[in-house]
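Record type: monomer structure entry
Structure origin: computed from sequence
Chain ID: A
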Amino acid sequence: MIPVGRRRSGRRATVATVGLAVAALAAAVTVAGCTSVRNDLGTANSGCYVALPSASAAVGGHGQLLGVRLVDVSSLRSRSPLLFRAAVTAPRPTPTRVCLVAYTGRFDAAKVERPVGARQGRLAVVELEYPNNRLLATWVVGRQPLPFGHSHLGFL
């Protein structure tokens, strides 16, 4: 037979364990309530990731994704006149921002949708109107005209 004093200490241990578990759960819920829900990548380009299926279709599913950028149309005037022209000659209303999706590989202008630029190249930059993802142009080019990678800080 278990002495009465032992039962009480066992109950105390159980109550203490349950109390500790409840306190830990309350702390976890409190900390989780302090964070916000996010459904993007935390970059200014996040809105363009929904354009990936349209961009992939524009290059016929070929190539490897290099990167995605959301840019103002006005910034393309000096950096990429062909993409600037494609944006400003688009049916009205003229977009103010576009998504640029770059792919590396071997591209032939005859095999991409709405080609501009070279006949062949190792890079294709797909220009889509933001936010409705309407295809404006696919720029076939030999070298990377704009930065598409992420910059890294620190030692790698």
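Annotation 1: The longest helix spans residues 4-33.
Annotation 2: The helical segments are 4-33, 52-58, 76-79, 81-88.
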